[in-house]
Structures are given as structure tokens and as C-alpha cells.
Specification:
Blueprint: H1 2-14, H2 23-27, E1 32-34, E2 43-45, H3 51-60, H4 68-76, E3 81-83, E4 87-89, E5 91-97, H5 100-105, H6 111-121, E6 127-133, E7 141-146, H7 149-154, H8 169-174, E8 179-182, H9 185-196, E9 205-211, H10 220-228, E10 237-244, E11 250-255, E12 260-264, H11 265-268, H12 272-275, E13 293-297, H13 301-304, E14 311-315, H14 318-329, E15 333-338, H15 340-346, H16 348-367, H17 384-400, H18 403-409, H19 414-431
Parallel strand pairs: 6-8, 8-9, 9-13
Antiparallel strand pairs: 1-2, 3-4, 5-14, 5-15, 6-7, 10-11, 11-12, 13-14
This protein binds flavin-adenine dinucleotide.
Flavin-adenine dinucleotide binds near residues 112, 216 and 297.
Length: about 450
């Protein structure tokens, strides 16, 4: 059985089904490690694993399957609302942290950071599993357990390179006290699987939060961005931010020699088709459906024009809803409830990518004999034009991910290509505006 489990895991790794959540690495006691994190960032088995451990790891791997309906029933059976796009929820809000420093220092409205700070202050948690940029290698992200407000604040802002939060499962298990956990959808799915198996590694987790998740990028994106600016060595990076400054923020790299390279977030999005983690394109969870509370950007002109930072906040569990209500009563956050229709329209392009595009891409994969994750649900029968569009987009992604395409783009000023990319986002948003009413079967 153990050999079979390891073979299965290797199959996941070899077929772009691995989302790099870090669960296998965290559970393995050193027998599975990530390779070069500035390269493919893939887990590899380096030592023998006992049959029991191999089975424990394989059961927790979210790459092969995650039963959305089953886990929804398990965790959110009491939720009054559900939509196939948003998942189960209690309420949806637009909100922000009232502390200006927290709001400005965070990715969008600072809601996730504010929640962690409030839970710590009120002793509802003793630590928070969060992800900051590494101090030793400031070009890489690292997950740790923050036990102070300073630690939580240090981890604010989104990291758009691969992270593997569940690598620190052993530290989470050894931690003495209650934990809040922050992770991307694939990482959260690993945690939910471990909870379902009563695994000791997750026994301290009291709350689960997480950002929305469109996609993530390989580290090659950073190397390429540097090369576009004439910088050759990523080890000369002194600090790296993805959402620096006023919302929506800037990608900003400070070099050891004092040079600062900066590009508005929407322009830096040009890196996506060239360096996207392929597994992002198989993930069907935009809004982090298995968290207690999830947070995304409030993408709508009315907020984008104002700057400052606005989040979309989805309370899914009863305890998530209660936290937000108490924080609002304490005047720590500001919330304005919105309806499902508005929420879906705001992220219509994201839902199109995840809830239509991913299923179509999986269909394409099946046609050429590649395996797909089993999510326990399937959306299908989209308009013919959508399949056609996906064919074009998939071909483009395949071409733009090649070394020659990357070489060419590095010779075009990022500010120029970034502007083109921002315009295409606007067109995509407009074309998916009516997504809520389109075929959902
Ligand atoms: C890879 C990625 C893709 C995203 N895609 C979208 C999208 O398509 N649409 C959208 O609306 N929003 C997206 N978001 C979410 C958005 O960027 C903000 O994180 C979200 O709005 C919450 O903002 P905040 O100000 O409340 O978060 P903050 O207060 O800044 O807190 C963010 C928290 O998330 C944790 N975190 C940050 N990056 C990672 C990471 N890579 N892995 C694990 N934990 C992390 C931090 O430790 C911190 O605790 C994405 C975020 C990430 C990380």
C-alpha cells in the first residue's frame, strides 16, 4: 500500500496536479522535500517512508481530489446561502480595516491582518500561521507562526510567487496554544482533509482564513522581471513586495545597491501568462470556499477609483460571521453588506477563469489523456464561443510559457506591455459581465 501511495503521489507531481501546498513535505518528517524553490518548486521523495505514513500523506493530498459538496456539507451545512461560484456563505461585505496603517500596509483592505490582530489581542488565538517574505532570502516567501502583532503585520500583503504553507505542519502540531491559519485554497483543502482524518498536525487550528486565489507564478517571473530591467542576479534583491503602496499597489523590488524597480500591480500582471503555475489553471476555487472567512479585492470602479484599499469579505461559518460582527462593533473594521449578484459581477472575470475556464481546460486535458483532479462536481455545457475562447487562451498560455516568448517579452519595456495587459483585463471584465446568468449546469 505504501509503495502504491508513493507512486500515486509521484503521479500527481508528474502531471501538474501538485499545487505545492506543502502537505506531503510537512507530514513526511524530512523524507519528502521541495527541490529548488527558485526553479520548479516540486516535492521529491528522498528517503524511505513507512507504509502508514505514506497512506497518511496520500489521503491528505488535495492535488488528486477534493470533494467540494462533501466538505461543504461537513463544514457549512448551516450556511443560509450557496452559489456554485461563491461557495457557501453567511454574508458578503465590502470592508476595510479602520487602522490606516494596517489598511495601507496590506494587500487590499487589510481585513485579514485586522482579523488576526483582533483575535490575538482578545486572546482567542495564541498564534497565526502566516506567510512573509524571508529575512534570509528576501526573494522567497516563508511561512511561520506569528505570536505578536508585529509578526502578523510583517506578513501582510499578497505574495504572488509559489508558497507552501503546509510545510510547517510539524511546527503547528508542536505549538502550544490555539492557532489561526491563513492559506490559499489548495493549502486550505489539505488542512480540511487532515481535519477530517483527525490528524494531530492540525489539532491546534481554531480558525481558517484565506485570500481569494486567481493564480500564482513561478519564481521565473521575478528573474524575468529583473532581466527586463537589466538586473541579472536575484540574490541582489534586498526586498520584494507585490502590493506596495496605495491599493491596488505596486510590484516593487529594492536591490542591495539601492536601486528601486517598481510597476503598478495591474501592469505587473503581464507576467502571468509567461510564468503562471499550471496547476493554478486547474483550481476551481476563486474565493477560498472552505475558510471561515475569505478576503479578496473589491474590484469595481467605484472602489478602484478611491484607492486606499477595499476588500471583499465572505463570512462562511457562524464563527466567521460572529468575528466580523464583533470586530465591527469594536470599530476595528468597517463593513457594508452587498448581495451575491454584486459580488459575482465584481469578480466575473475571476469566476470565468475558475468556474468555466478550469472545467474546460480539464476537458481538453482529458481529450489528450491527461488526468484531472476530482472535485466532486462539474460545471459544463457552456456556450460554444466559451470553448473556442478557451482554445485560444490555452494556446496563448502554452506559447507564452515557452523560453522564446519569455526571451522576447524581456526585450519590451514592462511599462508598455503592462499597459496592454491592463486594457485586456478591462475587455475581459466587460465580456464576462453577465456571467451569473449564463449557463450553469
Ligand atoms: C497568490 C494570490 C492570488 C490572488 N488572486 C486574487 C484574485 O484573483 N482576485 C482577488 O480579488 N484577490 C486575489 N488575491 C487576494 C488579494 O490579493 C488579497 O490577499 C485579499 O484581498 C486580502 O486582502 P487583505 O488586505 O485583507 O489581506 P492582508 O491583510 O494583506 O493579509 C494577507 C494574508 O494572506 C497571507 N498570504 C499572502 N500571500 C499568501 C500566499 N501566497 N500564500 C499563503 N498566504 C498568503 C498573508 O500571510 C496574510 O496573512 C490573491 C492573493 C494571493 C496571495
Amino acid at each position: 500500500m505504501s509503495v502504491q501511495s508513493i507512486d500515486n503521489l509521484q503521479h500527481v507531481i508528474d502531471h501538474d496536479l501538485c499545487n505545492r501546498c506543502g502537505t506531503c513535505v510537512g507530514l513526511s518528517g524530512g523524507s519528502i522535500v521541495f527541490g529548488d524553490k527558485t526553479g520548479d518548486y516540486l516535492p521529491g521523495v528522498i528517503a524511505d517512508i513507512s507504509p502508514d505514513l505514506a497512506d497518511r500523506i496520500w489521503n491528505a493530498c488535495p492535488g488528486k481530489n477534493f470533494d467540494f459538496p462533501g466538505y461543504r456539507k461537513l463544514h457549512f451545512s448551516e450556511a443560509p446561502h450557496f452559489h456554485l461560484y461563491t461557495g457557501a456563505y453567511q454574508n458578503i461585505f465590502i470592508g476595510y480595516a479602520n487602522d490606516e496603517n494596517v489598511r495601507r500596509n496590506s494587500a487590499s483592505g487589510g481585513i485579514l491582518t485586522a482579523i488576526l490582530l483582533w483575535l490575538l489581542k482578545n486572546r482567542l488565538i495564541d498564534g497565526a500561521v502566516v506567510t512573509r517574505m524571508s529575512k534570509k532570502e528576501p526573494w522567497l516567501a516563508e511561512t511561520f507562526i506569528a505570536t505578536t502583532p508585529e509578526g502578523i503585520i510583517e506578513a501582510a500583503q499578497s505574495k504572488y510567487i509559489i508558497t507552501s504553507v503546509n510545510e510547517i505542519l510539524p511546527q503547528m502540531e508542536a505549538f502550544e496554544g490555539k492557532l489561526a491559519y491563513v492559506g490559499l485554497p489548495g493549502q486550505v483543502q489539505g488542512i480540511r482533509k487532515l481535519q477530517a482524518a483527525n490528524d494531530p498536525s492540525v489539532r491546534n487550528i481554531e480558525y481558517i482564513f484565506g485570500p481569494f486565489y486567481g493564480n500564482t507564478l513561478h519564481f521565473s517571473s521575478i528573474k524575468s522581471f529583473l532581466r527586463s530591467h537589466g538586473e541579472r542576479n536575484f540574490k541582489d534583491i534586498a526586498s520584494l513586495h507585490f502590493r506596495y503602496g496605495e491599493w491596488p499597489g505596486n510590484m516593487r523590488i529594492e536591490m542591495k545597491n539601492g536601486r528601486v524597480i517598481q510597476l503598478p500591480k495591474f501592469h505587473a500582471n503581464y507576467l502571468i501568462p509567461f510564468h503562471i503555475l499550471k496547476n493554478s489553471l486547474l483550481c476551481t476555487d476563486l474565493s477560498n470556499e472552505f475558510t471561515d472567512i475569505s478576503g479578496g479585492d473589491a474590484w469595481a470602479p467605484v472602489y478602484e477609483e478611491r484607492g486606499k484599499g477595499f476588500s471583499m469579505v465572505i463570512a462562511r461559518s457562524v464563527k466567521g460571521k460572529e468575528i466580523l460582527a464583533k470586530m465591527a462593533a469594536d470599530n476595528v473594521i468597517s463593513l457594508q453588506e452587498i448581495d451575491e449578484n454584486e459580488a459575482i459581477t465584481m469578480h466575473s472575470h475571476g469566476y470565468d477563469l475558475k468556474k468555466r475556464g478550469s472545467f474546460i481546460r480539464m476537458k481538453f486535458r482529458s481529450l489528450v489523456g491527461l488526468p484531472n483532479p476530482d472535485y466532486g462536481y462539474e460545471l459544463k455545457d457552456f456556450p460554444f464561443g466559451r470553448y473556442l475562447m478557451e482554445l485560444v487562451v490555452t494556446s496563448l498560455f502554452m506559447f507564452l510559457g515557452t523560453p522564446i516568448a519569455r526571451w522576447v517579452v524581456e526585450r519590451i519595456p514592462p511599462s508598455f506591455i503592462g499597459r496592454i495587459f491592463e486594457k485586456s483585463r478591462t475587455v475581459w471584465k466587460r465580456s464576462t459581465y453577465k456571467i451569473k446568468r449564463s449557463n450553469l449546469t
